[in-house]
3-hydroxybutyryl-CoA dehydrogenase
Amino acid sequence: MKVGVLGAGQMGSGIAEVFALAGHRVGIFDVDKSQIEKALRNIRWSVEKLTEKGKVKDVEEVMSRIEVLPGVEAVRGDDLILEAVFEDFNVKIDVLRKASEEANDESIIASNTSSIPITELSRAVRMPARFVGMHFFNPPVLMPLVEVIRGDNTGPIYFNRAIDIVRGLGKTPLPVRKDVPGFVVNRILFRIFNAACGLLGKYTVEQIDSVAYYELGFPMGIFMLLDYTGLDLNLSISKEVAKRGLRLECPPVETLVKEGKKGTKSGAGFYNWA
Ligand code: CAA
């Protein structure tokens, strides 16, 4: 299969890696060239890690399946086009409109949106029946679950095909038939973030994270996960779901983002990562 990934941030690069690891040819595009260079460095680092652990044989073979696309028009001819740009309705609409104009009539178009209903995004897509949500979790290469979301306009054939594609990656698809803001996972996860934020002031970040990690058995603390996922992404998701009536904000996140603290990727967030 030939796959075009639009957006080379944390999620786009991880998704491109997952498809390349599964043997697909992947093209990746981002308007920001430095982001592409960073994405290729991160993918190489990750594939090398998997090689050390005996999960991948040949780093160069995997890397050779990934090419950098010169523009959105280069997705023409791809079997699957996966949009993974910043979590902002207008940015996504713009990219999806351009990509679907270029796509051939047989392509499936997917969005990695974490929060925006697929039915709303489908209005920008030329072939809404072929449009689905395919929501990966960070880091895509290690996280087994992928939400596959059916919008009101998604054709059942294409929804099932998207589920099969996810299965073919060795991932576990979670079919989501109720196209609501935040889908399933983030409706739960953001309530957890929200509850933890509500305890700040009474308890420290470290105390709350210790409870999550040592008592509740979470793989990492809640604020650590917020830093790891990206506070800017968290803020955008909160804003997108709030516009649709679901209020799950964490006010300290907004303050940190205003200070340029976006979590691990910027060197600081709730924790100092420098
Ligand atoms: N590629 C390859 N290897 C990686 C890697 C990657 N991207 N990331 C980490 N590793 C490696 C580490 O380098 C480490 O290797 P060594 O053993 O050689 O040191 C190994 O994996 C284990 O990593 P950690 O020591 O960090 O240990 P861990 O056991 O905690 O595993 C984790 C890491 C899988 C990320 C785990 O902490 C976890 O599951 N955390 C929760 C993640 C999560 O919930 N993600 C969802 C966030 S929400 C989201 O993404 C969606 C949204 O819409 C907001």
The two ends are 40 Å apart (CA to CA). Strands lie at 2-6, 25-29, 66-68, 80-83, 108-111, 131-135, 145-149, 172-176.
